[in-house]
Write a structure and sequence with these properties.
Helix 3 crosses helix 4. A hairpin with a 2-residue loop joins strand 1 and strand 2. The chain contains 5 helices and 2 strands; from the N terminus they run E-E-H-H-H-H-H. The chain has 166 residues and is mainly α. Strands 1-2 form a two-stranded antiparallel sheet.
């Protein structure tokens, strides 16, 4: 199939369509797995594993602070949007744009203020450049190891079947 776009041609073949769909499915599966891990595992356990893997401390701390700050910003955004709705900020399209851009502007300013207050609170609690979490050992049970082994066996079989069919 040939498609003309701005005096150039986009050529789509069966192989390229198959490759694009395969990559899209892999990307969606990866995102789904990351969502599952991030929504089902407490943050301190993820950090514990990353420290065991010897990931640089600066990356772990940035990841944790960004993760925390996302929820702070979401709360502030929700409060500002609620305030705009109560003042009829979304009555028509023009007011909606004004409210949206006003919220964005204020959110930028408030983000800096919240970041400064959070850092002050961390320093007041003894932050010295390293985040420390109370970590306890949780040895894996035989049932968990068996389920994990069964899961990996199914994945290996599925990979083998995929390789044979392709």
């Amino acid at each position: 199939v040939f498609i003309s776009i701005l005096h150039r041609y986009l050529i789509i073949t069966r192989e390229s369509l198959f490759t694009a769909s395969k990559i899209s499915v892999k990307a969606m599966c990866s995102v789904t797995c990351l969502y599952m891990i991030s929504l089902s595992t407490p943050m301190h356990e993820i950090i514990k594993v990353l420290r065991k893997w010897k990931l640089p401390e600066i990356m772990i701390e940035l990841m944790f602070l960004i993760y925390r700050f996302i929820f702070v910003l979401l709360e502030v955004y929700y409060n500002m949007k609620t305030a705009a709705k109560t003042r009829l900020g979304y009555v028509n399209l023009r007011r909606s744009y004004q409210s949206f851009f006003g919220i964005c502007t204020n959110l930028f300013v408030i983000a800096f203020q919240k970041a400064s207050k959070n850092f002050d609170a961390m320093e007041a609690r003894g932050y010295d450049g390293n985040l420390r979490f109370l970590e306890s050992e949780k040895p894996a049970t035989k049932k968990q190891l068996g389920l994990c082994g069964g899961y990996f066996l199914v994945i290996i079989i599925l990979l083998g079947v995929e390789r044979i069919l392709i």
